[in-house]
Amino acid sequence: MKAAGVIGLCAAAAYAQDTIQNHIPSGDFCRSSALLSQKTLPDLAGSTCSRSHDHYATQYANNNSSSPWTHVGPCLGQQDEKFCVYSSKTFADGRGISIVTRPGRAEQFGTIEPFTNPDLTRHVNRDLDPDYEPVYKSVKVPGKGIGLVAAKTIERGDRIMGNTASVMVDYGVFEALKIDDVMALQAAAVDLLPHRHRALVMNLSTHVDMEMTHHQKVDRLLATNSFDIDDHDPDGDVFYVTFPEISRMNHDCRPNADYYYDPETMTHNVHAVRRINIGEEITVSYIDPMQSHADRIARLNRSWGFPCGCSLCQQKDHVSRESDDRLNQILELRKEFHDYSTASRATPQMGELMVSLYDQERLDLLKYEAHTYAAIEWNGVGEPWLATKHARLAVEHGLPSVGPADNDVIEMQALAKDPYKHWSWMLRTSKRMSWGKKASASE
After folding, report:
1. Which of 98, 123, 174, 319 could form a disulfide with 189 if both were Cys (CB 3.0 to 4.6 A apart)?
2. Mind listing the pLDDT tens digit for each residue in 237-270?
3. For residue 388, what are the domain limits?
4. Last residue of a domain, one of 284, 305, 326
């Protein structure tokens, strides 16, 4: 899962200023504003969903020619807290999209480039091209159901897939409406998708084996196969968004692929973070990979209802304890790197240890973070070439994990271009040697 995390690096011009975004929260994993949805699941057995699917099948075309929506409705709630389904069957070369939100926010969506400039999302969803041969194939995976495996060797950094959003649900709807009404809007949103797209969503796993109404099934599908997305509206709620293709990827605490969301194209991108051999399963992490063994097991059981079967979690106890010790040391070292006082113990050698710990833990999806720390520390003591080496590695590992717009990637590109002009140049040395403007005798 992804959230905004931990690398806080100060600017040279103002030593206390944070210039790099966080990437690993203490709780859930949500880099690049994208994280597997934590929407509270309803008690399906006790639900009183009394309204039928047909009751909410009312759909009507929006006659406003300037609007991107081909259908608007149903709408539920009071005037000030009204939520509607806004659907476009033409979005992204006919892939389509449905959004559950307030009228005002729907109007804002209609003005952004993915809706106003069709060329921006043209050919993003390669699966719509009948001549496209994906680098993966869908197969039955023992003990996991359906999963994706590599159809060819995939190198680190290679793009595996990219897809625009299917269904977006404004979290504000859960505060404004009753759960039955929320489920009705969600079901309508899915039903308004083009037929092939709707089938992709409905064929996802609910992770439970029980009889459910149509509304309940859709609710469960969205809750267990969605990601949290921030549309950068400071006055709005976060959306949880469904991308059915990536949801076919199974979990691994040490995955070989990672993903990030590009708000400019409303696209979820998946890239390899290490070499994936032909026939090897392609996996992503559903949770924060920095959690301890016990916490990872508990989180997966609580949210997805399955015990983790990845190689890391199946190790013997003494191996798991050693892994937990490494993770704890990483967390302790982070504190040192974030300390820019004269008392800080952070050194380039500590940065090299950080890189080694990430390698030992097989944290391929987070290696850009370790190289970023090392680059800053080497530059901070006036070693530009070692700093540049790690900056280049940080960018290489960061692009497939967090994308080109991530602040850490941008910072490392700047350092690699000219380490002498980067704010971190000689930062540690100048601090420890108390360099700077001397106080006058009268001060």
Report:
1. 98
2. 689 899 998 888 999 999 999 999 998 899 999 9
3. 317-432
4. 284
